[in-house]
Amino acid sequence: MKRSDFSALLLVVLACVCASACIADARPPTHARAEAARTTAPRPQYQRCLDASGGVTPTMQDCIDTEYAYQDRRLNQVYRRLIASLPKAEAARLRERQRAWIGQRDRDCDPGAAPGQGQLLGADGCRVRKTAERAAQLQTQLDRAR
Asked: Does the residue 7 lie in any domain?
């Protein structure tokens, strides 16, 4: 097979793979996927706030701070309810797992040794996402425990 024929074939295969991925992403979400997306993602008003910020760093930081405060409150409320619902030994294990999760989140969202504004915003946005995801995980555990 000539190189040009192989390249053309490769392009056709890639186009088919991309098209099938796009079609798969375009199908309506199942209830479970829709519920998971709703609860693990930051709230829609967070994205609206970021969109309305015009890329102005202090305004973006205000959006991030507001959403983080909301997600952190949500996480702490669910965590307290879950701890209260568990037997003592399981509650102790959850406390250990939560401490480990906080350390991992902080490592994952570290802006680096000499961060600029972009890295700081990125790190703060990471904390928002990870906190929202963890709140959803704990809510799922709480729902199962009931």
From this structure: yes
**Residue 70 located in a structural domain:** yes
Q: pTM of the prediction?
A: 0.73
Please give the span between the terminal C-alpha atoms of the chain, in angstroms, as a whole number.
63
Is residue 36 assigned to a domain? no
Token pair, residue 134, equals 């963890």
Strand blocks (E) in the chain: none
pLDDT in tens, 8-48: 333 333 333 333 333 333 334 444 444 544 467 899 999 99
Structural domains in the chain (count): 2
Exposure of 27 in the CB half-sphere (CA atoms within 13 A)? 8
DSSP readout, 80-92? HHHHHHS-HHHHH
Domain that includes residue 25, residue range: 1-30
Measured distance CA(47)–CA(25) in Å, rounded: 21
* Contact of 126 with 108, CB cutoff 8 Å: yes
- Specify whether 55 is located in the same domain as 107: yes
Q: Are 136 and 71 in contact (CB under 8 A)?
A: no
Beta carbons within 8 Å of 112's beta carbon, 6+ residues apart: 119
